[in-house]
Design goal:
Layout lengths: L2 H12 L4 H12 L3 H25 L5 H13 L7
Helix pairs in contact: 1-3
Length: 83
């Protein structure tokens, strides 16, 4: 698999593909080469796993006051008025 397809697989794993990328992904998935399709999907899955591990390893507790501030901000919002 070439570097452009690897980059595309990473974008898919991140959920950050645009219309142009979407078309390129569709070409890979609809292509005649089952090996390329399998390699692409494996790269997407492995990237998602690595991102999940990274997220767990770098997770931090938010400040305790944040919850109270968020709840106060939500409570202060006015519900939309039905017309």
């Amino acid at each position: 698999m070439n570097e452009a397809r690897i980059d595309l697989a990473h974008a898919v794993a991140l959920g950050s593909i645009d219309d142009e990328d979407h078309n390129a992904v569709q070409e890979v998935l609809d292509g005649e080469d089952p090996v390329l399709r399998a390699e692409f999907m494996t790269e997407v899955q492995q990237t998602k796993e690595v991102l999940g591990t990274l997220a767990e390893a770098t997770a931090a507790q938010p400040p305790a006051a944040l919850r109270a501030r968020l709840l106060a901000a939500i409570a202060a919002e006015q519900p939309p008025v039905a017309s």
